[in-house]
Structures are given as C-alpha cells and as structure tokens.
Amino acid sequence: MSDTIKILAGTESFDFAERVAKAYGSELIDSKTTKFSDGEFSVSIEETVRGKVVVIVQSTFPPSDNLFELLLLIDAAKRASAKSIIAVMPYFGMARQDRKDKPRVAIGAKLVANMLMAAGVDRVITMDLHADQIQGFFEVPVDHLYGSTIFLKYIKDSLDLSNICIATPDTGGTKRANSYAKRLGVDMAICYKQRKVANEVTEMTVIGDVKGKDVIIVDDMCDTAGTLTKAAGLMMKHGALSVRAICTHAVLSGPAYKRIQDSVLTELIVTDTIPLKKGAQTEKIKVLPVHDLFAQVLTCLMNNESISTHFII
Predict the structure, then answer these.
(1) Do 116 and 71 contact (CB within 8 A), yes or no?
(2) pLDDT tens digits for 162-194?
C-alpha cells in the first residue's frame, strides 16, 4: 500500500486498529500515552506524519478518557503537519444525546461533533449511529457504515430463513427492523415499551405475530440488556420458538452479562466495535469482526473509489 497513509490507535481500540491496519496492508505507527498520577495524560506520535493522511482509530465508549485521547491525537497530528486527519470511530459515544427531549439538557452528540472539528478532523468514519441525523452535526464528511452489511450475511449463511421473524425492542428501531425484514423477505414484530427513568423499562407489549417463529431482535446497541432480555422473554410468552438478538455495539454495562446469561436468548450477536470485558464473557455472545469493512472503506477513500456498496441497511 501507499506510504501516504499512516494509521495509529487510541489505547482502548489498539487491537481493533491493528487488525484494520493489517487488513489494509499496513502497520500501526507508534504513538505514546503518558499518564500522570493525578489522572491527566498526554499523547505523542512517535514518527513523522508530515504531509500524510493520518487515520486515528478509537471508539469513544466510556470513560470519557477515550474521547479526550482521540481529541489529543487529532490535535497532535494537526500540529505535526498531517495532510488530512480521518477519525475512525467504530462506536460513536454520546450518540443517544442527539436532541433536547426536555428543558435544560445538553445535546452531547452535537458537542462531540464540535470538539472533533475544533481539534482538526477532516473526515469521520463510524458505524450504526444511534440517530442518523448526527451526520448533520458535522461540517466535514461522515461515512456512516451499517452493521447490517455483516449481520445479513450471517443470518443468510447460518439460519433457516423460512421461519424467521425480525423484531425491534422499541418503536425507535422500527425503520432498522423493517429494512432487515424487507431484505430477508420475512415478517416483522414491534415491542412497545414505556420508561419512567433511563435504563429502566416499566411496561412492554408486542405488536405482531411471533407464534411459532424464530425471532431475531435487531438494535444498534445493547447497554444494560434490560430492554433486550425483557423483549426476548415477552416474545417467548407470545409463542416464539426461539429468540436471538443482533446488536452492533456491545456496550454491556452494569448487570448486562448476567442478564444475558440468565435470559431466554439463544444467542446475542454483536460486532467488535467495543471490546468485550475481560473475564465477563458469556457463551451466549457471538462476536462478528468488522475490521475488514473499515479497511475496505479506507482503501476506497484512498483510491477515490465509491463506497456506496458499504451502506447497506
């Protein structure tokens, strides 16, 4: 590959970035993060990037250090006279804060976009944003990839399509579930949920017929797994033969791993945009790698080729 591109990684996405670089046909360049005793840290890029296209790979899942490290790396590349800077953010944190849903709240996703642009980013590549309109928060190009590119192939290759029903755990995911159902030529069901506080579902009902079906619930992320496991249990009560779930981002916070293990879910299929917690894995979770997809998009960008085939939803 051309020497015009330099790929480097944030601390928490190092393994993912290493696989992206290898799939692209390159190697990661060295960067260094120095931490001080009070929690402050600084970054440095350990080789010249003058006149190069710098690709920085970092998912911005909690803690916020991951986001700030990405910002510092962008700033470092800018001050090192990089030709352009591409932020590869497999998981875009703060994406759930995409609007004012009540008075006196921040729009976190817009703030993150502003900070990335202020730091000096020229392009962002991400996957399955919680809200598509976040692309409009940027004044630079955003390549928004979809996990369906990977998941649809897995479903077709691994499961019997004749008895499948696609479901969504809430009404907000109806568009996503409908796209899966149309592409697979199967029926769709919707879970309607009500919340009194964040991360806590108070009531849930099923719209659609799942009796005698192998249900696949699709969503962009799985956080505490409360909604997902309740939806799976509700599907089984309504006569489903089995329930699987597909979630692009395995946030899996709090009691998520235990809930998944104890649930009626046959399988939870996720991508590696966020690494699973060491020692907390469950045999019900299957991880599909997406580094090849990001490497292919980088190749197309560097060769000025179309990437529209990678936007399947």
Answers:
(1) yes
(2) 899 999 988 888 999 999 999 999 999 998 766
| Residue-level pLDDT at 170 | 83
Q: Return the exposure string of 300-310: e unless at least 16 CB atoms fall within 10 Å of the residue's CB, then b.
A: bbbeeeeeeeb
Judged against a pLDDT cut of 90, whether residue 204 lies above it is answered with no
Q: Are 187 and 208 in contact (CB under 8 A)?
A: yes
Do 229 and 219 touch, CB atoms closer than 8 A? no
Query: Does domain 148-288 fall into CATH 3.40.50.2020?
Result: yes
What is the residue-averaged pLDDT of the chain?
92
pTM of the model: 0.92
pLDDT at 199 over 60: no
Half-sphere exposure of 205 (CA within 13 A, CB side): 3
The residues assigned a catalytic role are 193
Residues 252-288: tens digit of each pLDDT: 999 999 999 999 999 999 999 999 988 766 789 999 9
| CATH classification code of 5-145+291-310 | 3.40.50.2020
Q: Where are the domains of the chain?
A: 5-145+291-310, 148-288
88 vs 68: CA distance, rounded Å = 14
